[in-house]
Amino acid sequence: MAEMFKVLRDPLVKRLVLLSALGNASFSIWSGALIIDLFLRLSNIFYVGVAQFVLSIIANILLPYLGYLVDRFPARRVAAVGMLLEVLLPLLLAVKMRVLTGFYLVYAVLASVAPLGVATNLMGVLFSKMYRGLINSQELARQLTSLRSTLRTIVFVVFDSLTGVLVYLLGPSFTFIIAFLIELAGFVFLFIAFRGAWSKWNSAAVKDDGKPPFRVYSVV
Q1: DSSP letter string, the chain
Q2: Of the listed ranges 11-25, 30-44, 84-98, the one predicted with least confidence
């Protein structure tokens, strides 16, 4: 198991993994709070299923187009748009959960969940491109895949368990605010931790051929 942590010797991979973990934590919190709150407010599992369906199906339908956006535009611009949506929409959900009821709440939630799913998948595609640009060894790629999968599982297990407690103690709207704060921290970290890389991490530099777009250890 210790083998998979070797890939973290690369400072940029380490930062990407941390950023991805923050996104997974936020997603686990707001999606769990949304499911719990919709069920408690509407007492109908159908609407929970609809919300989950919209969250997954729209993002999956648009996935090829998200890949095109990542290829077409500079990575910094794509990251800014994706994470800005991930920051603002949980805050918007918090407001909706406090002021709306009934079918108005259902429609408003669906209007937020769809772009949230798109933004989450957009960032996932971007991170995958960045990883592939940094990792030029099959062994390191295997270690990174194992590490990401393990950390993702750990984050989801921890925060899925924690979300129910947070909703019970604080209410769903405050739980969305916690997700917002996590995303905001990730948004700030994104531009601080990668400030020296964006000039080289553009649509032309991030390749799928396994070749690093720049010398990793030269970035501070």
Answers
A1: -GGGGGGGGSHHHHHHHHHHHHHHHHHHHHHHHHHHHHHHHH--HHHHHHHHHHHHHHHHHHHHHHHHHHHHS-HHHHHHHHHHHHHHHHHHHHHHHHH--HHHHHHHHHHHHHHHHHHHHHHHHHHHHHHHHH---HHHHHHHHHHHHHHHHHHHHHHHHHHHHHHHHH-HHHHHHHHHHHHHHHHHHHHHHTTTTTTT-STTTS-SSS--SS-GGG--
A2: 30-44
CA distances from 125 to 14, 60, 71, 105, 179 (A): 17, 12, 10, 30, 21
Q: What is the pLDDT of residue 206?
A: 46
Whole-prediction pTM value? 0.78
- Domains and their CATH numbers in the chain: 12-198 (1.20.1250.20)
Under the banding of pLDDT at 50, 70 and 90, the label for residue 38 is confident
Separation of alpha carbons 180 and 87, rounded Å: 5
Tokens of 62: 């648009």
Q: What is the model's pLDDT at position 1?
A: 56
Average pLDDT over residues 28-54: 80
